[in-house]
## 1
Amino acid sequence: MSPERVAVIGAGSWGTALADMLAMKGTPTTLWSYEEEVAAVINRENRNPRYLSDVSLDSRLRATSDMGEAVRGAGVVVSVSPSHVVRGVMRDAAAHLGPGALVVSASKGIENDTLQTMDQVLAEVLPEAVAARAVFLSGPSFALEVAQRQPTAVTVASRSPTAAEEAQSLFQTSYFRVYTSSDVPGVELGGALKNVVAIAAGITDGLGFGYNTRAALITRGLAEITRLGVALGARPLTFAGLAGMGDLILTCTGALSRNRSVGYEMGQGRALDDVLGGMTMIAEGVRTTRSAHALAARTGIEMPIVDAVHAVLFEGRGPRDAVEALMLREPKAEQWS
């Protein structure tokens, strides 16, 4: 059953791509933009000049910078803001939510101060009944390729099987295939932590290392993600799926990956502030590195790749020195706990 209207909260590239896809399906869709001028251009020219400028958007998509206008009366609200502002943005949205609204989170990250996933953040800012049915969308999905209608597969996770199926039906198209899961922690953590490993992959690419190095990082990065995820209540098999290995491969190898690009530039010798200063869109992995490093310390989980990325980003360690230190760690069995 289709909702009367969908509100997509966040007009970055990912939010815009999802809103455009829903509008193309014939679902009445309103896209909320923090920037009034972005909303105005979307309505006037059917394009997002700041975040998805080369894509022609469906003419039925409407945009607004008024949160009340976007959310009031929406049967589904899709949260797609950068993870570090989700708490504030969705607190504002909650004031306009209907009691039966379905909230779908498509943001990937872990708060720095609280070390909470978006699931835990939403549980604190949404009405209890709404939060209990929240759905979390993740998987290998570059926004530009979704907007170009390229075949893509993702996972939606919820503690409510009915809510997951509602989200599956809402987003499913001929080019966007949606699977369901009940493992909310696994889908959330896979989507957030892969960005840290992608920075590491970019660093090694920037240093001029080859495919062997990248394959090692992806594989051992997945081992770290799985160890932490299981310690935090996730199921290990989730990390072998779309929200785990699938998203990890994409983000570590794809030229459209913002996180890999940050690592690449640092591997080439640029400073972090310089790299971030030249970016329009947010590389979630930079903030998530702080959270992952703190979570590993709090849970006692060994995450050497995360530690190395943290050292390069925030402790002044040279990229080449960090890679060498990883290789010279004490030898271990591949499978260990």
## 2
Amino acid sequence: MARDVLVLGGGGREHVLAWALTRSPSVAKVVTAPGNPGTAELGPTHAIDPTDPDAVAELAARLGVDLVVVGPEAPLVAGVVDALAARDIPAFGPVADAARIEGSKAFAKAIMEAAGAPTGGAVATGDRDAAYAALERFGPPYVVKADGLAAGKGVRICTELDEARDAVDDALVRGLFGAAGSQLVIEEFLDGPERSVFGVCDGTEVVLLEPAQDYKRALDGDAGLNTGGMGAYTPVPGFTLSEVDHLEDLVFRPVLQELADRGTPYRGLLYAGLVETTAGPKLLEFNARFGDPETQAILPRIGGDLGELLWQAATGSVAGAELSWQQRAAVTVVLASGGYPGSYPTGVPIHGVEAAAALPDVEVFHAGTRREDDRLVTAGGRVLAVTALGATVAAAREQAYEATDLIGFDGVHRRSDIAAGV
């Protein structure tokens, strides 16, 4: 029997999730809350606060959906899945205690170490002097992280000790990140390319998705400030699904077992942020949800039934389950507002989306958009994610940039080097 699915969230990740689920044979209907102009083309949207557990559970019950897929991290940390479970509504996403693996970097480090998963050294503290001592212990480059969720702005990598001490003071003395920065994690710097590996988890078992490479810095050549992500591509040469299957036993299963042993089984998407060091892959962080914009590159390559896999993870077991994959590459290029990740205007008219989406093998996913008087306008820092498929990464890249050339709005910014030279 085909199922009705509610996708919770309103960004680019939720648009591609809804898009992929509408293509799943096991899914009858997809609704989103609050959704965006892109998801509205796929099914009904409902204007609620996704971080309000009671409101989400009430909506899911009223709609009679069979499954809720939670997109962003904030609703997970707020306990949305707990509220759904109280009403016996299946959800793909961890309960709040398990979502601490993203909500608290100190908790994540403790889980990594207890599970014996490879990671760098770290000190978690809310004491300024202890933080200063940890900086000197690890040496440069210095890594200073706010423990809690800080909208992607809570990580500072500093080359000078004085700069790192100032980052400590921003959090602990000046309270720049509020409660999220009342405790810090000072980490050993891990040198090497970053990789994103997603695992669909049922509490004990995992099905890995095809890895992707994303681009965090705002400017070409990995210059500028950190962002939520300016683009991504998949497959990654030397880091394809068949080449990372050892991570199931090295990283995912030990961490799932540790969480289960603590009484918080993890059902949902576990995102391992890894660094390929000279000593092998090491864990940099965990996220409790699909990454953005990696998901916009990964999901269009799926050839199987994503909805069925998420249902199995939420309600039963994924043991023996697997997805089929198209033997094509995908490249995603993000179009951002001028000034992002700093301050930026909103309400800027957007043109060319329909023309770009009409190109062969191109999808345009909405991230920060809204409708005003029947016009599409900007409503966020990352506005659109343009994904193209191709026989090779180079071919997909050419098509993605051809599509982005058709889209415009005042101040539009993109990186020009996504997947260059791959």
## 3
Amino acid sequence: MRDRSALAIVVAQVFVASLMIALFGRLFYLQIADGPRYQQAALDIQSRDIVTPALRGLIVDSRGEPLAANKAGLMVTADRSVLDREKDKGRSVLYRVAQVLELNPNDIYIRTRLCGELPKDEQNGCWNGNRYQPIPITKDATEAQVLKLLERTDVFPGINAEPVSIRNYPSISGEQGTHVLGYIGPVTEADLNNEEGKRFYRNELIGKAGVEYVYDEALRGTPGVKTVIVNYKESFTRESKNITPIPGNHLVLNINAKLQSAVERELEASVLRARANGYNRYRFGGKSSCYGFLS
């Protein structure tokens, strides 16, 4: 009887010792061996990326004349981390901003909401970035409007302004090269989930058609990324990294803007003459006008 009791005690002790060894082994693995991976996962949950798009490269013709350039504008932005601390979540502030900018208050409210905060049928124009970076309200503010906003920070908390680059197509020689140059637009969900593995950030503008699309990667440059760490209250605690943006490359085309303009004018005149003579089946902007003319 005593032998059986002693054996049972030994078995229990071995079992408990095995559990303790397994437990300590698992703790060692989680905290020491695999600790860095879990630490990085925790940081990923707590980190927020603030993305600054790079200056887009120019597109010029064979003589160096700009076909696509960047002009300076004034962008008014909203800081959600400040607005959310207001009693009404910043609604009254945005209403006063709308009066200064002469915009629809409801449009401004939607522009400063994260897309996940709105129903799907109201997400047109919502902010697809995060609340830790300046949210654009408009890029066409005047100096007088900006001064009104910045002079009264007590009336307009969380509202700021900064110079911004706006893509434009100057058409110096009078050419209409939209069919060749294409255009740029905001990143969509389809762009984010592209099959080519291209990486985009939500607040970037990317090429959507034409040369802007084909050479987008070279023109777009590398955006700047500042990563901040937040606590469980979503409040900023520290900065993790800060990578400055790298401007995009310039692109030189074989198109001659003056020749393009001259041919376009002559083509339009020919189409108008043909119409005057009763040949209405031809129209300017059809198949014959979809090419750029080389130097």
## 4
Amino acid sequence: MRVRSRSDTLQAFSGLQRILIVTDAWAPQVNGVVRTLRTITHEIQGMGKTVEIIGPDRFNTVPMPSYPEIRLAILPARKLARLIEAFAPDALHIATEGPLGMAARRYAIRNGFTFTTAFHTRFAEYLRARTGMPLRLTYSWLRWFHGAGAGMMVATQSLRDEMAVRGFRNIRAWSRGVDLQAFAPEPAEDWQLPRPIFVYVGRVAVEKNLRAFLDLSLPGSKLVVGDGPQRKSLERAYPDAHFAGARHGAALASAYAGADVFVFPSRTDTFGLVVLEALASGLPVAAYPVTGPLDILGAAPAPVGALDADLRQAALAALTIDRSACRPYAESYSWTACAQRFMDNLVPMQGFRTFSDQSETL
């Protein structure tokens, strides 16, 4: 890695220029973490910064057990170290807790570099759903992982409060945004299904609690847009539902706009980026009153969504909402503001202690 002069370090404090993000979630994966990182990268580059993403696409990988769409890097430490040193970042952000995240954490600690992390995914709850692993064990490991960093970014106030109760420290707020050019009420897909159409968009996986949606007694049609390890089994179990598969770009935007209500059955998401995408597409939202929907819509829900412990009641209530209110509500969420908050949360890799030491010797 390049040796920083005192002027290099001063520049880092006045404005970080070279940002490195290490993530186990990256293309071709399709999820909220990937969309968030891809979008803020574009926004930060627009600020005149240089951003490098190191993901599993640069390494030999194996499929994740029970979730083959996700590839995990095999023994990435040596190559990752070379990539970090070749880029010579001013700030390091570790986005995930997988093999790459672990290797980046070890590298930073071994070299005395500060870094930030993010709590994107309820890993403990997902692991329990798949393996039965007790929450207390996984959260203990997560506290160890994130506790070594200078700050852990979370998407919502309710999640920040929950993590504080669980013993996490140095938590930093980092909300989300929505691409208002990509998602809009028009054009809308003509699904040629009986109306009203209740749609879910996202990964088709056990942690998304899709059965809670598909079990509902609702008029019209149930539509699932997305793919994942549960898709085949759910298609067999719910032959009356329509499974459209994964959509991207303009096809995804029109898929939202062509429905009548967006149903978000997850109880474990840390935000729910798809909620904002649905609203930007003019689609009212029905969800449980949990982290994510509560933070976006409010405890006394905004007039663009319905939150209820009875998801059927929420879906039917959302059906009566004026769609014209949804798009203006989504417009208050800016990716530019999201990217700036991310930048504000970063720390120089050498940190304040190193700067002080250099000041005394120069």
